[in-house]
């Protein structure tokens, strides 16, 4: 699929583009970056103490794989022989394999002591040479915290900030994080400085606050805050996720995005929005593939009750029938919302946290699960550059374990 043309965006959604002028420019691709969802790799495994990058002339599909035991603890000590990888149902040989363990050295420092916190521009994420430490240890994760405008104002906004602060608190000493807002730019670029990250979270409001004029209109018609001029057709959500993925794709370490929000819009019944959303969604998915980005979604809106009320179903009157229809539509929308929020984490091997009044409590567990993982690469069975989708399935030859990995990829075009 082709990317959304800048000319189309200028002509059809100039209002939305005007609101994005404060956002960071799309990053320049670092040297050596490949324009598709595959990576170059060799036939042997890289050293476990070096960043998990592979280089040769063979185009391979790379994936991060987490293996958890029954208590959701990472399983270490596996070898390539313990894994089975299938592409479109056909087993493929593992061409490259690297175990990564970020937990053992979490408290270690090199002879020179802990390096000073370094702030790195979101458009210039460190490459392998920049992130490798002098002691040969793993460079840590790149974590993007995306505060989405779908978060309702009030208590959910406070909960969203609590979630974001919990992510910062869970960072390892070598992890770097950035704070972003859909449609509102990057208040804090990638850094190890937790004080800067906490400050960026505290000073901004992620919710889509409507103007007084729009609020007055709500008395006469429904107004969706996700479809306002500052985020025309909801494009700012897939566009921002794609921007993050394109920024970090050349970095060798594990790349993670925490989406903190109440909803995602990836399709629309409106003709003008439907076309643009499909283009933005395709760009987002392909960028996620190229970057090998893991996406976790955490909903800050708390418990929801999608069940119909007893009052709506008690009587067969026009009033109660109308009430039942409205509640049925509300339940259908809630089910759609939940299914949409689970889509990208399911595709990338991430987690979705829904229907809890303490969503921040899940954050330490998510970090613990990714403290040890495996980088696998296979040679695609269908190397044609036709842009087609290919399903991936990863299994481990052990009982009682859970495997989390990406579900597929799009071939290059």
Quick rundown:
The protein is built from 10 helices and 16 strands. The protein is an alpha+beta fold and 413 residues long. The protein has a 7-stranded mixed sheet, sandwiched between helices.
List strands and helices in order, with pairings.
Layout lengths: L5 H7 L1 H6 L19 E3 L16 E11 L14 E5 L2 E3 L1 E8 L17 E2 L7 H4 L10 E6 L7 H16 L5 E6 L3 E7 L2 H10 L8 H6 L18 H13 L6 E6 L10 H21 L1 E6 L19 H31 L3 E2 L9 H7 L2 E7 L10 E8 L5 E3 L3 E3 L3
Parallel strand pairs: 7-8, 7-10, 10-11, 11-12
Antiparallel strand pairs: 1-2, 2-13, 2-15, 3-4, 3-14, 5-13, 6-9, 8-9, 14-16
Shape: globular
Task: Characterize the biggest β-sheet.
Answer: 7 strands, mixed
Order of secondary-structure elements? HHEEEEEEHEHEEHHHEHEHEHEEEE
Number of strands: 16
Structural class: alpha+beta
Q: Evaluate the radius of gyration.
A: 22 Å
Helical percentage? 25-40%
Distance between the termini: 8 Å
Strand content: 15-25%
Number of helices: 10
Describe this structure in words.
The protein is of the alpha+beta class. Helix content is 29%, strand content 21%. It has 10 helices and 16 strands. It has helices at residues 6-12, 14-19, 128-131, 155-170, 194-203, 212-217, 236-248, 271-291, 318-348, 363-369, and strands at residues 39-41, 58-68, 83-87, 90-92, 94-101, 119-120, 142-147, 176-181, 185-191, 255-260, 293-298, 352-353, 372-378, 389-396, 402-404, 408-410. The strands form 3 sheets. Strands 6-9-8-7-10-11-12 form a 7-stranded mixed sheet, sandwiched between helices. Strands 1, 2, 5, 13 and 15 form a 5-stranded antiparallel sheet that branches. Strands 4-3-14-16 form a 4-stranded antiparallel sheet. β8 (176-181) and β9 (185-191) form a beta hairpin. α4 runs antiparallel to α5 and α7 packs parallel to α8 (271-291). It is globular. The termini are close together. The model is unreliable at 1-58, 105-136 and 210-215 (pLDDT under 50).
């Amino acid at each position: 699929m082709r990317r959304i043309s800048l000319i189309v965006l200028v002509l059809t959604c100039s209002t939305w583009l005007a609101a994005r002028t404060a956002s960071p420019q799309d990053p320049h691709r670092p040297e050596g970056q490949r324009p598709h969802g595959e990576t170059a790799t060799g036939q042997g495994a890289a050293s476990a103490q070096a960043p998990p990058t592979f280089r040769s002339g063979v185009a391979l599909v790379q994936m991060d794989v987490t293996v958890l035991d029954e208590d959701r603890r990472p399983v270490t000590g596996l070898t390539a022989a313990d894994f089975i990888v299938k592409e479109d149902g056909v087993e493929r040989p593992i061409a490259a394999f690297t175990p990564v363990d970020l937990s053992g050295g979490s408290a270690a420092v090199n002879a020179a002591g802990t390096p000073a916190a370094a702030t790195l521009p979101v458009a210039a994420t460190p490459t392998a040479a920049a992130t490798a430490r002098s002691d040969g240890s793993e460079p840590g994760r790149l974590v993007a915290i995306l505060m989405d405008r779908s978060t309702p104002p009030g208590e959910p906004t406070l909960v969203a900030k609590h979630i974001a602060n919990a992510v910062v608190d869970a960072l390892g000493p070598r992890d770097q994080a950035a704070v972003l807002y859909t449609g509102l730019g990057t208040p804090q670029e990638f850094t190890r400085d937790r004080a800067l990250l906490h400050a960026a979270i505290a000073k901004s409001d992620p919710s889509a606050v409507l103007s007084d004029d729009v609020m007055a209109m709500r008395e006469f018609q429904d107004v969706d805050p996700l479809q306002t001029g500052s985020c025309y057709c909801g494009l700012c959500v897939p566009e921002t996720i794609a921007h993050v993925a394109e920024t970090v794709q050349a970095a060798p370490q594990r790349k993670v995005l925490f989406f903190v929000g109440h909803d995602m819009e990836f399709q629309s019944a409106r003709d003008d929005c439907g076309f643009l959303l499909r283009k933005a969604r395709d760009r987002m998915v392909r960028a996620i593939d190229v970057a090998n980005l893991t996406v976790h979604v955490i909903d800050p809106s708390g418990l929801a009750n999608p069940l119909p009320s007893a009052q709506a179903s008690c009587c067969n009157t026009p009033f109660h029938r109308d009430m039942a229809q409205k509640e049925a539509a509300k339940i259908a929308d809630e089910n759609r919302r939940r299914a949409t929020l689970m889509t990208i984490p399911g595709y990338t091997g991430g987690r979705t946290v829904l229907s809890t009044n303490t969503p921040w409590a899940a954050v330490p567990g998510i970090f613990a699960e990714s403290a040890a993982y495996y980088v696998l690469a296979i040679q695609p069975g269908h190397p044609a550059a036709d842009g087609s989708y290919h399903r991936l399935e990863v299994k481990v030859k052990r009982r009682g374990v859970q495997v989390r990995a990406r579900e597929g990829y799009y071939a290059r075009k």
